[in-house]
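Moderator note: this is an archived Q&A kept for reference. The question asked for a predicted structure of one protein chain; the sequence and the answer are reproduced below.
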Amino acid sequence: MNADRQQSGEGMQLTYEEIWVGIENLASREGLSLSALATKAGLDPTSFNKSKRLGADGRKRWPSTESMNKVLQATNTTIFEFMELAGQPYCPKAKTIPLLGLAKAGREGYFDSSGSPLGLDSWDGIDFPLQLKERVYALEVSGNSMEPAYRDGDKLIVSPDAEIRKGDRVVAKLSTGEVMVKELLRQSARQIELRSLNPLHEDIVMNAADVLWMARVIWVSQ
């Protein structure tokens, strides 16, 4: 990402100033302060404060993809509606990406040891309007076990290439073959702690060796 412009899709770019204008206009549309908008999205209330928009060295700080995803989901706003709020209406060119039901993800033959998809001829596909640098695929949620974060029919856009950090939502495959979607709380050489998205389910702590791979959820398509 360069210092002045962030590419969100093929031919779709927003400047640093436009992104922050979009966030401010989104808050105004929702009748919220910037702090209330961040809180509604499950972020630190100060995330969008003007004092947070520059680093200590004076460099511009951009909202993360995960933060933007949470804000758009919390306000039921599409990326294209946000583009309009930022002053850059966009007509997307869709790209087809692989789609698999999450319930099938634990079966053999669908992923390699790094979490990249295999046997794509047995996968379905969906149109996805953003052209991303990372490899991506989609997993479709079935049932209500991940509500209120994800609902039946939601499609999780997953990247095995994206860096994973504390607080990110991830797809994890265990040595038992089980595949789950959780929030990464902590990762060390020996242990991995994952938070359940549904408050009715307990958080889990496991040996790092029992997690075959993790891949980051970078977007949600409803």
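Archived answer notes: The radius of gyration is 18 Å.
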